[in-house]
């Protein structure tokens, strides 16, 4: 008896961005952020704080710029501890893709 294989169905296309750090950062482009990072096995500086304007973010990195000097930094997500903003954070909860953007202080 022949075995009929069904072709795999394509993955569903998300209707809204999922709630990942890089997506939240992209929603907050242009805002000043304070980024706290830890660098293991680094005897010179184990922890470091970066402050700058959010330019963009990807799965494994954040790009910020210093508004005073224009210097840009590419920071790796693997070193990220947490991020703070001095103004409300723009965020769309993934459970409500049709909602207006929320701001969280």
Structure, explained:
This protein has a single domain (21-104), classed as Roll (SH3 type barrels), CATH 2.30.30.100. 7% of the residues lie in helices and 38% in strands. The chain contains one helix and seven strands. The chain has one helix spanning 21-27, and strands spanning 32-38, 47-57, 61-65, 72-76, 80-85, 89-91, 102-104. The strands form two sheets. The protein has a five-stranded antiparallel β-sheet with strand order 4-3-2-1-5. A two-stranded antiparallel ribbon has the order 6-7. A hairpin with a 3-residue loop joins strand 2 (47-57) and strand 3. The mean pLDDT is 85.
Rounded mean pLDDT is 85
Domain module tally:
1
Low-confidence stretches: none
CATH class: Mainly Beta
Q: Approximately how much helix is present in the residues?
A: under 10%
Give the number of helices.
1
Give the oligomeric state: single chain
Strands ordered across the widest β-sheet: 4-3-2-1-5
Order of helices and strands: HEEEEEEE
Q: Tell me the fraction of residues in β-strands, as a range.
A: 35-45%
Number of strands: 7
Topology, please?
Blueprint: H1 21-27, E1 32-38, E2 47-57, E3 61-65, E4 72-76, E5 80-85, E6 89-91, E7 102-104
Antiparallel strand pairs: 1-2, 1-5, 2-3, 3-4, 6-7
Pfam families: Spore_GerQ
InterPro entries: Spore_coat_GerQ (IPR014099)
Protein name: Spore coat protein GerQ
């Amino acid at each position: 008896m022949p075995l009929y294989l069904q072709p795999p169905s394509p993955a569903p296309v998300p209707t809204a961005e999922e709630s990942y750090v890089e997506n939240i950062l992209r929603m907050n482009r242009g805002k000043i952020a304070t980024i706290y990072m830890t660098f293991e096995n680094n005897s010179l500086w184990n922890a470091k704080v970066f402050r700058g304007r959010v330019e963009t973010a990807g799965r494994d990195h954040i790009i910020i710029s210093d508004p005073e000097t224009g210097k840009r930094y590419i920071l790796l997500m693997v070193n990220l501890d947490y991020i703070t903003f001095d103004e409300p954070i723009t965020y769309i909860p993934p459970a409500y893709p049709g909602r207006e953007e929320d701001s969280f202080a």
